[in-house]
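Encode chain A's predicted structure.
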Amino acid sequence: MSVSPVGSIAPSIPSITKETSIKDPLANVLKKLVLNAIKETGISFWRPLADRIVEYVCCSSHFFDDTYWENLIGKVPPAPPLPEDFNKIWDGPCPFYPEKTLSQTHLLVYIPKTVNDNPLTLKHFLTLTQFSFLKQTNHFIPLPGYRIKDTLIPTLGDKPIKRSHWVLITKDILRNSKDRSIATHRLMVTKEGQLDYQMPSLLKAVICSQTHLLACSRPLFSVNDSLPIYTRCQESTEEEMVLVGNDESSLLIIYQIDETTLSDVGVAAMKTLSIDPYRV
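Encoded structure for chain A:
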């Protein structure tokens, strides 16, 4: 029997209840309706209300656990316990932004081995989340799609998650990481992350990006930018880089392009929390 990720192990994380999981999609619908009212009427006094709703949604979206998976995507194995010192980690300083705590700059995301009793792969996850967005929004919100480089599916689309585990990922790309080479990105992540972090893998970057969008209706990696920002992934090489992010219309972009410096490409950092080798 697994230990819950909330309560005695991580009391600083908001308690997860069915009510919490239900209210987020409702807040997303309300936010979209308010933003549509601004667009259609031109009355700017709606804007503060929309901002408050955004703040409300994001306050309860610092994590995505097995309860969120069950309510929004599909059946998953119980999440493993978090490390015993997780409270200290979560409330401690962020290695990339020392002036802030980890809880202010990171997401905590559960990565299950299976969903609906099928191995969690990129192809399976994209299929599941297309249905989840449609089911969650009840047609009030435009359904986000995805654009993916066709050569990535044969090579990476069926690669499964080996064991269920938790990850921490930065909500934004690292400071000063735009327009940098892959070598610089690797150095930034490992040096600033004190050897505990790595560049996100393609599958985990997609999972974190889309679960955040489901729970919060805001793109990941673009927290401090008005324009879309993409993170480079582990599968990048010196010749080609693999990118993940969402564009202005929340369309998921998974692409592979020639290695160049681009103003909208940076790098996020991911940390895998300890995995029990005896768990499946």
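Residues 1-24, 133-144 have pLDDT under 50 and may be disordered.
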